[in-house]
Amino acid sequence: EYGYYPGCSLTGSAHRLNSTTKKIFKRFGHDLKEIPDWHCCGAFEYGNKNELTDFSKSNLKKAHGFCNDIVAPCPACYKNLKEANQDDGGSFSILHPLDVFEYFDIVESIDIKHDLEGRPVSYTHLRAHETVLDLVCRLLLEKKKKQKQKARQAR
After folding, report:
1. Phi, psi torsion values for 90, nearest 5 degrees
2. SS3 for 68?
3. What is the spatial distance between Cα 35 and Cα 72, in angstroms, rounded to a whole number?
4. What pLDDT, on a 0 to 100 scale, did the predictor assign at position 33?
5. pLDDT tens-digit profile, the chain (155 residues)
6. Which residue of 24, 46, 107, 112 pairs with 42 in a disulfide if CB–CB is 3.0 to 4.6 A?
7. 3-class DSSP state for residue 95?
């Protein structure tokens, strides 16, 4: 059983991610219990890191005694909760659904209907988890891609 923090985007524009995440967890026998009375983490409203951390710390207080593991599908919420948890002593395990899927080998047991191999991936979601090393790798890959495009255009 996991605490679940959908965040604002999953109750609005990303509602399909919300319903799909819940269906996958249910299908594989994992319960998601929404953290009571959660509120926005502020990711898209505020730029001040301390304020963002305080918003997420407030959500973590609401989760005390409710759960030990918190699943947050929204990359911005995941990042903010994870940072607030570290600042607060790390009493929770903050997880992205893919962390859980990987741990329980759920991905291997899913019957893939549409293989997405070779298709472009949105950097918007990936960049929320980006470390300094990831940034360097991404920039190098983008540079290499631009060089290939220029070489093709020159032909």
Report:
1. 70, 40
2. coil
3. 11
4. 96
5. 899 999 888 888 888 888 888 988 888 889 999 999 999 887 766 667 787 788 899 999 999 999 999 999 988 899 899 999 999 898 999 999 888 877 776 666 666 666 666 766 665 555 555 555 555 566 666 777 788 888 888 88
6. 46
7. strand
Q: What own/partner pairs with CB < 8 Å and gap ≥ 24 does 14-21 have? A: 14/73, 14/74, 17/73, 17/74, 18/73, 21/71, 21/73, 21/97
Q: Please state, in angstroms and rounded to a whole number, the distance separating the CA atoms of residues 118 and 139.
A: 19
Q: CA of 149: how far to CAs of 121, 123, 144, 145, in Å?
A: 18, 19, 9, 6
**Nearest-5° angle of CA 72, CA 4, CA 134?**
15
Distance of CA 82 to the CA centre of its chain: 10
H/E element holding 75?
helix 75-87
Phi and psi angles of residue 46, each rounded to the nearest 5 degrees, phi first: -130, 150
Residue 57 CA, chain-centre distance (Å), reads 17
Contacts of 31 (CB under 8 A, 6+ apart): 1, 2, 25
> What pTM was computed for the model?
0.68
Rounded Cα gap, residues 115 and 64, in angstroms: 40
Give buried/exposed letters for 138-155 (b at 16+ CB in 10 A, else e): eeeeeeeeeeeeeeeeee
